[in-house]
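Retry 2 of 3 after timeout on previous attempt. Resubmitting structure tokens to design endpoint.
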């Protein structure tokens, strides 16, 4: 018999500061990550006693959809969406997180690659450039931005709002069901695809498309900074599904 338990945790900022005081940035960060994992685990275990995680599809933009987005003619009265599109496409073709594309400086850019230290994990990454990411960087190489930023990145909140508008205009309105649980209550949410698009969709799109193209997971993980193969599993499942659908094209010959 499962017992329903409701336990609440409150972490005071001062205690977090005391726990990490005297540590360098990397060590302090690791302590905070460990604390977060522990408390998330406790919350999942004790908040309801039988919490269930729904396995939702990975929402991303395929290569065909990215080409539609790239070629979409943005109306003259909505030119502010041009910056959003360029930055988002750059994320889709490099796998960078929003925090990392925000921190990208011109000094991080080399002829055929970018070299960065990620904001989230402090990991040094070397990401090779392709024709899509290179062309976006070239477009802005003579434009000056604050702090010598490489691209015209707006706030995360504003960019997500712009992405919804841009993707709606581009026609990404297929209804998608998203299932999650609040306690033991199952909630099914149906929205058009554009409503689910956010800055993180860029990273997901890069991973899914790279795997679907046949690039080895180990290489993709080098670009994205994933150290856990388990974290790549949902994307690999998506790539396998794409390949299976592609194989059916032979049936139409």
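Retry 2 succeeded. Sequence:
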């Amino acid at each position: 018999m499962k017992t329903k338990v409701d336990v609440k945790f409150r972490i005071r900022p001062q205690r977090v500061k005391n726990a990490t005081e005297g540590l360098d940035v990397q060590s302090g960060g690791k302590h905070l990550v460990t604390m977060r994992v522990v408390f998330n685990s406790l919350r999942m275990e004790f908040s309801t006693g039988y919490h269930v995680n729904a396995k939702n599809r990975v929402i991303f933009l395929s290569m065909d959809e990215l080409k539609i987005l790239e070629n979409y003619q943005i109306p003259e009265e909505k030119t502010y969406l041009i910056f959003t599109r360029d930055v988002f496409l750059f994320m889709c073709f490099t796998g960078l997180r929003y925090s990392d594309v925000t921190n990208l400086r011109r000094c991080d850019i080399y002829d055929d690659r970018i070299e960065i230290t990620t904001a989230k994990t402090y990991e040094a990454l070397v990401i090779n450039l392709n024709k899509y990411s290179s062309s976006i960087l070239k477009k802005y190489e003579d434009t000056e931005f604050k702090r010598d930023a490489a691209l015209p990145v707006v706030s995360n909140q504003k960019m997500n709002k712009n992405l919804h508008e841009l993707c709606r205009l581009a026609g990404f309105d297929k209804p998608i069901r998203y299932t999650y649980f609040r306690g033991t209550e199952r909630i099914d949410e149906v929205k058009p695809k554009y409503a689910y698009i956010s800055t993180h969709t860029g990273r997901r799109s890069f991973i899914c498309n790279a795997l679907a193209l046949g690039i080895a997971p180990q290489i993709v993980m080098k670009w994205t900074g994933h150290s856990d193969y388990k974290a790549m599993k949902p994307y690999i499942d998506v790539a396998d599904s794409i390949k299976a659908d592609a194989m059916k094209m032979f049936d139409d010959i």
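Attempt log closed. Residues 180 and 186 are 6 Å apart (CA to CA).
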